Each structure stands twice: as C-alpha cells, then as structure tokens.
Amino acid sequence: MPANGTLTVGTAVVAPGERGHGIIAYGKDAFGEALGVPITIVNGAEDGPVLWVDGAIHGDEPEGPLAILKVLNALAPSELRGAFVGCMAMNPPAFFNNERGHAWDKNTYDMNRIYPGRPNGFPTERIAHAHAEALVATADLEMTIHSGGDHSYLSMAIFHAGGASEELAKAMGPGWDLLLTGGPGGKSPMTTMSEAGKAGITVELGGMCATLPHDYHRIGDTLAEAIFNVMRHYEMLGGEAGRCETWLHGVQELVSAPVGGLWVAERHVQMRTPMRESDVIARIYDLFGNEAAVVTAPCDGQIFGLRTNPTVHPGDWCCFFARITGESTDG
Ligand SMILES: [Zn+2]
Questions:
Q1: Separation of 110 CA from ligand 1 center, angstroms?
Q2: Cα(61) to centroid of ligand 1, in Å?
Q3: CA distance 222 to 151
C-alpha cells in the first residue's frame, strides 16, 4: 500500500517513513517569538488512519504527556501504517504552571469547556482554536488524556460520544470497561471530532497524588499500552488487539461538596465497587472538629474517582460517580 503522503501539522512537515516535530502557532510573545502547541509526528511507511493523542488540556494532568512520551519512544515509522500525532501539552501555559488552566486567562480558564475556541477570543480560546483547526484537518481518530489533576484520582474510565467514538473507546482494550456519557463540559476535542464526523474520546486515569515513580510509570504504561492497542485495533500496527469481554455503560453524576472543611473519605470506600444510593462516601468536618456534612452516593452505581485533596470548599468536586445504565458484550 502507498503511504499517506507527507503530513503537515503546524510547522511540522513529515514525510512517510519519518518522524519530526514542530509547533502549532497561536500568537507571539513580547519578544516577537512564536507561541505554540508542541506536535511530534511519526508518519508510517504505509497508509492508514491518522491517530492524534493529546495530553495536558488541563495543565495539572501529567499522565497524557508521559503516555505520549512512552509511545513516541517505542514507535518506529517503518512498522506503522498511517500516522501517530502526539501533542504532549495542548495547553502549554497551564502545563508549565501546573494548573488546570492558563493563569493569565480570567475569562476562559478551562480549555475543556471552551474547545474549539475562537481565533480572536480570550487567550485559551486562541490556543484551542489553533489546535482544533489542525486536529480536524488531519485526524481520523483522537484521544484526549485526562486525570484527576491536583484535587482527585480517577480510575480507568472513558467518555465517548456514541457511534465511531464508542468503537474507539472499546478499542482501548482490557481493563477499560467503564464507558460513560454525560458529565460536565460538552465543548471538548471529543465533541469537536464528533461534530466533524470523526471519532474522539476522553480518557481518564491518575492524578497528582500518584506521581511517585512506581505509580507514575504504572499509569503511563497502562495508557501507552491502550494507545498501542488502539493502533492494533485499527491495523496501524501488527498483532492482535486485546478487548474487554463486557463493558459497563453509565452516566456521570456530579458529586460536589455541600460545605467547606476537612474532607475525610470513609476508610472502606473503594472505586469501581457497586454502591447503593445513600451509602456514605465521606464526611466533611469543620475546623472545630464537628461533622458538618455527610456525602453519600447520589444513586445506585459506583465511584470511579475520588477527591485526594482533603481541603474542600462548598461546591468543590469531591467524587466522580457513575450511574450504571447497562452492560454489553460484542456478541
Ligand atoms: Zn482533565
């Protein structure tokens, strides 16, 4: 099969069978230097789909950058059909600040709530717009990798938009058996890809509480293996793709803190374990030692993410809860 041809993303111009990098420029700084989103391309020697994997749309989520790094280090253009485009940090200012959003942007702080942005908009909107234009022009498949960031830890979970997006979610392979829809947001790379008739997913795993060496590598390896599994599923790489035997389907229910104080989850609470509505998840104490609130399961379902920062304010995100709506198999 002939190769896809030269792939151009921003300043990266990469011929078949080669790898290279560049930036998608979104403006200039006070010294006249281009500000850009980093892009690394591995362009396969044979034709096939173009898979984009995006990390750090939220700057306090370093799992995507590590997974992309691991894939880039292991992937040879000679063995690839199609192309892999790795964007280790979609939101570089947020990444360098180690914060969810761009600290200078007081109006559109969260890139995953305003994507695909506007060309003449606020700072984050401009970055999102530049990224989105390049993404939609070149990608067939897209994965944005998230985690619990500085406040939470999330277990393996995927948000999808149905159709081709759900197929991509199922291609992540063994262990990725929780497929969710809904939740906050709705203006994300996944929705932009879906509106363009393409497949995008939002992947969750990890958190800043799990970045010591063993945990950080475990999470990075798990994500990298899922990316390789996706490439095997779409025949971008040889070998047989792994697959779950069954999937749980669900809807995210937001659980936010009713009061401020010290967040103390119950000792026995586990992720990915069936719970009944009103089962106790955590207690919040005021700073006089009084129990100020009890946080309970909002419905039957299971926890897939929990707050790890014990300081909590009213309205803070404190539990990622899945209402399970069904189960499916390939059969
Ligand atoms: Zn995120």
A1: 9
A2: 6
A3: 21
Indicate whether 2 pLDDT > 90: no
| Ligand 1 center–CA 145 separation, angstroms | 7
CA of 144 to the centre of ligand 1 (A): 9
**How many angstroms separate the alpha carbon of residue 147 from the centre of ligand 1?**
5
Q: pTM of the full predicted structure?
A: 0.97
**Above 80 in pLDDT, residue 182?**
no
pLDDT tens digits along 265-274: 999 999 999 9
Q: Model confidence at 4, in pLDDT bands (50, 70, 90)? A: confident
Residue 297 near residue 281, CB atoms below 8 Å: yes
Backbone angles phi, psi at 35, to 5 degrees: -95, 135
> Which three-class secondary structure string do you get for 298-313?
CCCEEEEEEECCCEEC
Alpha-carbon distances of 107 from 57, 133, 151, 316, rounded to whole Å: 16, 21, 22, 19
Distance 174 CA to ligand 1 centre (A): 22
